[in-house]
Write a structure and sequence with these properties.
17% of the residues lie in helices and 30% in strands. It contains three helices and seven strands, in the order βαββββαββα.
Amino acid sequence: MAAAQGHFSDHSDGNRGTEKAAGDRVDPKDPKDPTTPTAPPEADPVPAAFRRAVEALRAVRLRPEIEVDPTRPPQRLAPYAYALEAAVVDGEEDLADGRLVLLHDPAGHDAWKGTFRLVTLIRAELEPEMASDPLLPEVCWSWLTGALETRGLAYGEASGTVTMAGSHYFGGLAERRPATQIEIRASWTPKEGPAGVPDTGTHLAAWCDLLCQVAGLPPSVDPASGTTSGAGVVSLPQRRGPQHP
């Protein structure tokens, strides 16, 4: 299993957007090395609480099916940000992929009701007939809340959307099967613990449980804690990936 890695962003320029900007791309010509956690000369040093939260993310051990890559975090959502992107892989095929961003505003944020916020986007492909299931959005949202609750995590101000998009192929592509993609966008405020630091490592583990659930993988048991990930969460069949009874 691989440890999680990622990129720092600590731009204290006061420019903040909305959570919809969580997928914003950074100018590739930007010479700033995002792996170097240094603040601009005119800014205060990176807060200790944010550093500890990021260190906890980096220390998490993940299931072997999950591949994590560093990605540039958004620049305008909060003074400090850290981002990871991951995919559930079966051979050469990605069963699901996603992005997790940790935001931090030491001054607090009215909408978050806290100083930290987690923002995510997860995508996967499902059997086309599942799009007609009226319970699909509720089930998908239960994947997120169930993953957090199974790990015993306290959180607040959760919000998000579940979106389904279908594709039908014609002409030269007519031989392809119809495809339905599901997309989960969500954000929540992790409860802060001692010294104002949330248990970001466990939140990452829960997020990976969600990613595996969307990919159609069976629950796994954490050898360290004995926790069964994905237990008690309703599963839907996937168009791709292993099928389980």
